[in-house]
Specification:
Blueprint lengths: L6 H18 L3 H7 L4 H13 L18 H11 L4 H4 L15 H11 L5 E4 L15 E5 L2 E12 L6 E13 L2 E12 L5 E5 L11 E12 L3 E2 L5 H37 L1 E2 L2 E2 L4 H29 L5 H26 L10 H8 L9 H19 L1
Parallel strand pairs: 1-4
Antiparallel strand pairs: 2-3, 3-7, 4-5, 5-8, 6-7, 9-10
Helix pairs in contact: 1-4, 4-7, 7-8, 7-9, 8-9, 9-10, 9-11
Length: about 400
């Protein structure tokens, strides 16, 4: 398969790389030490990314976004992924799910996110319901033209700096061949809505400055016109989003693989021990070879999924393969890069210890590695079981 980049894609990579190096790298240490992105810095990054066309690049051009195809979005996310999560995420890509907005929802939620005036966050995970979304306990009960929401969500990324939440809640039960199954509906809920509280989440070893929050709903009443998509059709809305998000995570991890690998290779070529560079020692040289093998393998799988997505052919297995390959490659590469640096790799003077820490969460959120393997194995076996 040919992954040669077009002239426009090469320009995108160059622009994004320069932006990351000039606008994000200089603030990484500040964010690591303070565990915050200052509001004025956040605004500065948003405005600069809007100026050069990187903001909301995932949204269709006809809606005011960048209109990038899936492979081009992977190229952009790969470059942004070189920087710390708190800074790179400031160059927002609004949730693709917001394209389900209709009528006044577009003016209130979709377009402001594309213009950089608002930010969304997505709330699915609960204390007792992680990957098993059907077991969620957060409920939205219909009362006339309103829904009344009760329940708790946690591990909700960047809710502390968002203007509204895309909430998934149970809205009933349906009978299926496998027994009762909860119906799920998506809602648009503004921060500050009575009965809705955002609390500080858990301290996280990964992604300093990029926080998780706990969302609590206690008799929170919202009108019917804040349903996103159709009532009881939340899974249809979510499925349109999950594959794209897993592809995004995969591309971001490629960027971190690149940075960790480049640091390791440079260090191996410069650091001298016993009158030669350490890269001449087989123990180090073979590490670099294995790192490059993992990096290129993950790259091929991610780009293959992105090309299929551009043709609307990406399957759940393609997205799962991409996330699994890149997140596990990052875990391996960041660890080996740190090992090559020895004790210096653990010092905060270098970005390696942060990349190493940040890598761990990638195999957990947006579907654990175990969930990805389950998706892949089921996709392999299901056709064979039908034949049998």
């Amino acid at each position: 398969m040919n992954f040669d980049l077009s002239e426009e894609q090469n320009m995108l990579v160059e622009t994004a790389r320069r932006f990351v190096e000039e606008e994000l790298y200089p603030y990484e240490m500040e964010v690591e030490r303070s565990d915050e992105v200052r509001p004025e810095l956040r605004r500065q990054i948003v405005e600069r990314s809007l100026e050069i066309g990187l903001y909301a690049a995932n949204m269709p051009a006809e809606l005011g976004g960048g209109g990038l195809d899936p492979l081009s979005m992977c190229l952009l996310d790969r470059e942004l992924g070189r920087a710390s999560m708190a800074l790179q995420y400031t160059v927002a890509r609004p949730s693709n799910i917001l394209q389900a907005c209709v009528g006044e929802q577009r003016e209130k939620y979709l377009f402001p996110c594309i213009r950089g005036e608002k930010m969304d966050c997505l709330a699915m995970t609960e204390p007792g319901a992680g990957s098993d979304l059907r077991s969620m306990m957060c409920r939205a009960d219909r009362e006339g033209d309103d829904f009344v929401i009760n329940g708790t969500k946690h591990f909700i990324s960047h809710a502390d700096v968002s203007d509204f939440v895309i909430l998934f809640a149970a809205t009933g039960v349906e009978e299926t061949k496998r027994g009762p199954r909860k119906k799920i509906t998506a809602f648009l809920v503004d921060m500050g809505t009575p009965g809705f509280t955002v609390r500080k989440g858990y301290h996280n070893v990964s992604h300093r400055g990029y926080h998780n929050s706990i969302l609590e709903f206690d008799q929170c009443r919202i009108p019917l016109d804040q349903v996103l998509g159709e009532v009881d059709q939340g899974f249809e809305v979510a499925n349109d989003w999950l594959g794209n998000t897993r592809l995004q995570v995969a591309a971001i991890c490629l960027g971190r693989c690149d940075r960790a690998f480049e640091l390791a290779a440079s260090y191996a070529a410069e650091r001298r021990q016993f009158n030669q560079t350490i890269g001449k020692f087989q123990g180090v040289a073979f590490k670099l070879a294995d790192m490059e093998l993992r990096r290129r393998s993950a790259e091929f799988i991610v780009y293959d999924a992105a090309c299929k997505a551009a043709e609307d052919r990406m399957t759940d297995m393609d997205a799962a393969l991409a996330k699994l390959a890149s997140t596990e490659a990052l875990g391996f590469i960041s660890d080996e890069a740190l090992q090559i640096h020895g004790g210096m790799g653990l010092m905060s003077d270098l970005p390696l210890e942060r990349i190493w820490r940040d890598a761990r969460v990638e195999r957990i959120w947006e579907g654990t590695s175990e969930i990805q393997r389950m998706i892949i194995s089921r996709s392999i076996l299901r056709p064979l079981e039908n034949v049998a």
